[in-house]
Design brief:
- This protein is an alpha/beta fold and about 230 residues long.
- The protein has one domain: NAD(P)-binding Rossmann-like Domain (Rossmann fold), CATH 3.40.50.720.
- It is about 35% helix and about 10% strand.
- It has seven helices and five strands; from the N terminus they run H-E-H-E-E-H-E-H-E-H-H-H.
- It has a five-stranded parallel β-sheet, with helices on both faces.
- Strand 1, helix 2 and strand 2 form a beta-alpha-beta unit.
- Helix 2 packs across helix 7.
- The chain is globular and about 45 Å long.
- The structure holds nicotinamide-adenine-dinucleotide.
- The site of nicotinamide-adenine-dinucleotide (NAD) has 24 residues, from helix 2 and helix 4.
Length: about 230
């Protein structure tokens, strides 16, 4: 994501997330930066959580709206520190976006080293469990609800037979992820009926709606119809 794309120009005249406070994990780049940028432009404040101590241009965002929290989401000792970091500055907490994630090169299961599986589960899955232990007791104590947005992949809810086939041919680029190439994008586009690849801005817009009070009972995939195929 470029500096221009991630920096909000101004706060919307009718902000959807006014007075909300969010923690966005992996907000230092990519989708997380897109989501955080949109949240800020809609009046939200909160924590940039990333294990990279120098997140991309987000540190120069609107003064007073964000604070950087440098920690590893896969480390259980990080989670008890998240709200004690957020609350003294922002005094409340409403929205958790579990976005930080890693991928491994697309390969059939039997060719993926066990340490890669462990790494993906540790960073992508275990934090969902850790986060519940952090945010649910807080919201319960306050007697209010909150919003948890969990980012995943369209690969998660359905078998990816074509991915497996692709992985069997090492000369073919894997889909977006560790290696993002024009060839990989062209392959991914074949599977997306709407014919566009998701961007951090599109994710930010979608996440903003889902985090707003307007979407209280909604769950949905933003995937250009991919999950319908
Ligand atoms: N890029 C894709 O093609 C794609 C497709 C489907 C789903 N996703 C999911 O979207 C999410 C974001 O992906 P992205 O493409 O923006 O990736 P990215 O690599 O651009 O950004 C991920 C961010 O998370 C941070 N991060 C990684 N591990 C961390 C950890 N242990 N603790 C704290 N921060 C950590 C990184 O420093 C980085 O800033 C991930 O959950 C990913 O699985 C991505």
């Amino acid at each position: 994501m470029s500096a221009n794309e991630s920096a909000p120009n101004s706060i919307s005249s009718n902000p959807r997330l006014e007075d909300k406070v969010s923690i966005v994990t992996g907000a230092g780049s990519g989708s997380g930066a897109g989501i955080l940028s949109k949240f800020l432009s809609e009046g939200c404040r909160g924590l940039i959580w990333d294990h990279n101590p120098n997140p991309v241009p987000l540190s120069s965002l609107l003064a007073g709206q964000v604070q950087i929290f440098t920690a590893d989401v896969s480390d259980p000792s990080s989670w008890p520190l998240a709200l004690p970091t957020c609350l003294p500055t922002f005094d409340k907490f409403d929205i958790l976006t579990n976005n930080a994630g890693v991928v491994h090169v697309a390969n059939p299961n039997e060719d993926v080293p066990e340490e890669e599986v462990d790494r993906v589960l540790r960073v992508n899955v275990k934090p969902l469990y850790f986060s519940a232990g952090t945010v649910v007791p807080y919201w319960s104590r306050k007697g209010e609800g909150g919003v948890v947005l969990n980012l995943s992949s369209t690969s998660a809810p359905r078998p990816r037979l074509r991915l497996a086939t692709r992985g069997l041919a090492p000369e073919v680029a894997p889909v977006l992820g560790d290696v993002d190439t024009p060839e990989g994008r062209a392959i991914a586009l074949v599977e997306i009926p709407i014919g566009r690849i998701c961007t951090p801005k599109i994710l930010g817009d979608a996440a903003c709606f889902l985090a707003s009070d307007e979407a209280a009972l909604l769950t949905v995939n933003f995937d250009g119809g991919r999950s319908l195929m």
